[in-house]
DNA sequence: GGTAGACCTGGACGC
DNA sequence: GCGTCCAGGTCTACC
């Protein structure tokens, strides 16, 4: 079965996929040669499907292929989820108008930068974000991979590949297993607590995708999640399309320091100050800035 | 409100 | 091979 989904121009499938490191995290698999992205996903019905995402001919959208025969409701769910993951209808025209006048962002529109790859559910993105904190990128890849391997539902025709675990499945686990076998370390209780809250209905992360709370209030709600601090909240807000806060981590301190402070140690306030006048586009300007300092997470992975 | 120390893991390094 | 140190954000207790 095949779906062709249009995107608001400008759109580049490759730009979205390579917007950050998510395509290296299970259950995503990126084919480096073709640029195609595979994603195992468990639908609301419980069925696990393999989605092959690729640039549509002409580059104006995305083509979704799956070996599964989807009924009407399942096809609509896949279209909705993929639309969210790739931000197909997002509009960056205001950002581009400003970026055109900024040499370090001059290519943003031509390269269709702005969209960042997201997981199918905000629960998945929240867990993944917690697993990026206080560890190396290789550690994040390992933890997410093990979590999917141990708790994800398998694809019927390819059982070694699994979907990201549902909150309900993770909620049935326990801290000792997550800590010692999944090797999440001290993050184990955070992930378990999050899964239990989501599965029990005390939390509805999926609703965060569409709610219209002012960003500071949404941030406050995210900060109330154990394991989510200022960096993780800003990262999650970016994934929700809110760019008013910067995800200041050690990488941010490094690139800003080399860009404007001759490599001298700086504090988070100086990172914020560097992008203060970008207002609601702060996060995007920061994320797609053409830094002088070229180190990024990929260096660590291939080191 | 600000700060110090603890939390885990894996990699680098010295022996 | 073993032990030690360090980097990576967040939480909690304390001032």
The low-pLDDT segments are 296-303
What percent of residues adopt helix (DSSP H or I)? 40-55%
User: What do we call the CATH homologous superfamily of the largest domain?
Assistant: Hypothetical protein, domain 2
CATH architecture call of the largest domain: Orthogonal Bundle
**Secondary-structure class:** alpha+beta
CATH class of the largest domain: Mainly Alpha
* Cα shape: globular
What is the subunit arrangement here? single chain
Order of the strands making up the biggest sheet: 1-5-4-3-2
The N- and C-terminal alpha carbons lie at a distance of: 39 Å
Portion in beta strands? 5-15%
Count of structural domains: 3
* Mean pLDDT over the residues: 94
Q: What characterizes the major β-sheet?
A: 5 strands, antiparallel
As for the CATH topology of the largest domain, it is Endonuclease III, domain 1
Radius of gyration from the CA trace? Answer: 19 Å
- Number-wise, the strands total 7
